[in-house]
Design goal:
29% helix, 4 strands, 79 residues
Length: 79
Amino acid sequence: MRIVRELVKEGIRISVFSWNNKYLLKFEDGMIEQTFKVSELDLTSEKDIDFFFEGEFWERVKKRSDEMHQMLRNQLGNM
Protein backbone atom coordinates (compact mmCIF):
# COMPACT_ATOMS: atom_id res chain seq x y z
CA MET A 1 0.00 0.00 0.00
CA ARG A 2 1.37 3.38 -1.03
CA ILE A 3 0.40 6.71 0.53
CA VAL A 4 -0.54 9.10 -2.26
CA ARG A 5 -1.51 12.11 -0.16
CA GLU A 6 -2.47 13.24 3.33
CA LEU A 7 -4.23 16.48 4.20
CA VAL A 8 -6.68 18.04 6.65
CA LYS A 9 -9.73 19.91 5.44
CA GLU A 10 -12.27 21.47 7.80
CA GLY A 11 -10.98 19.33 10.67
CA ILE A 12 -11.30 16.07 8.74
CA ARG A 13 -8.08 14.16 8.08
CA ILE A 14 -7.96 12.78 4.55
CA SER A 15 -5.57 9.99 3.56
CA VAL A 16 -5.33 8.66 0.02
CA PHE A 17 -3.72 5.29 -0.57
CA SER A 18 -2.99 3.33 -3.73
CA TRP A 19 -3.49 -0.42 -3.38
CA ASN A 20 -4.39 -3.27 -5.75
CA ASN A 21 -5.29 -0.93 -8.64
CA LYS A 22 -7.59 1.09 -6.39
CA TYR A 23 -7.43 4.36 -4.55
CA LEU A 24 -8.62 4.19 -0.96
CA LEU A 25 -10.01 7.52 0.22
CA LYS A 26 -10.05 7.59 4.02
CA PHE A 27 -11.82 10.39 5.90
CA GLU A 28 -11.20 10.54 9.68
CA ASP A 29 -13.15 12.84 11.98
CA GLY A 30 -12.54 12.14 15.66
CA MET A 31 -13.76 8.61 16.41
CA ILE A 32 -15.43 8.31 13.00
CA GLU A 33 -13.85 6.91 9.86
CA GLN A 34 -15.22 6.56 6.32
CA THR A 35 -13.39 4.76 3.55
CA PHE A 36 -14.23 4.71 -0.14
CA LYS A 37 -12.55 2.54 -2.77
CA VAL A 38 -12.24 3.90 -6.31
CA SER A 39 -10.78 1.96 -9.22
CA GLU A 40 -7.66 3.60 -10.65
CA LEU A 41 -9.24 2.99 -14.07
CA ASP A 42 -12.07 5.42 -13.19
CA LEU A 43 -9.60 8.32 -12.85
CA THR A 44 -7.30 9.70 -15.52
CA SER A 45 -4.67 10.89 -13.02
CA GLU A 46 -4.00 11.29 -9.31
CA LYS A 47 -5.07 14.94 -9.64
CA ASP A 48 -8.63 13.71 -10.30
CA ILE A 49 -8.77 12.64 -6.65
CA ASP A 50 -9.26 16.31 -5.70
CA PHE A 51 -12.77 15.97 -7.14
CA PHE A 52 -13.72 13.99 -4.00
CA PHE A 53 -12.76 16.84 -1.65
CA GLU A 54 -15.26 19.38 -2.96
CA GLY A 55 -18.87 19.82 -4.01
CA GLU A 56 -21.72 17.49 -3.16
CA PHE A 57 -19.51 14.48 -2.39
CA TRP A 58 -17.54 16.45 0.22
CA GLU A 59 -20.71 17.89 1.75
CA ARG A 60 -22.18 14.39 2.07
CA VAL A 61 -18.96 13.08 3.69
CA LYS A 62 -19.27 15.84 6.33
CA LYS A 63 -22.98 15.18 6.85
CA ARG A 64 -22.44 11.43 7.19
CA SER A 65 -19.65 12.09 9.68
CA ASP A 66 -22.02 14.19 11.79
CA GLU A 67 -24.68 11.46 11.59
CA MET A 68 -22.18 8.79 12.59
CA HIS A 69 -21.00 10.87 15.56
CA GLN A 70 -24.60 11.29 16.72
CA MET A 71 -25.30 7.57 16.27
CA LEU A 72 -22.22 6.69 18.36
CA ARG A 73 -23.16 9.18 21.10
CA ASN A 74 -26.70 7.79 21.22
CA GLN A 75 -25.48 4.20 21.46
CA LEU A 76 -22.97 5.05 24.19
CA GLY A 77 -25.74 6.88 26.06
CA ASN A 78 -27.89 3.74 26.00
CA MET A 79 -25.30 1.60 27.79
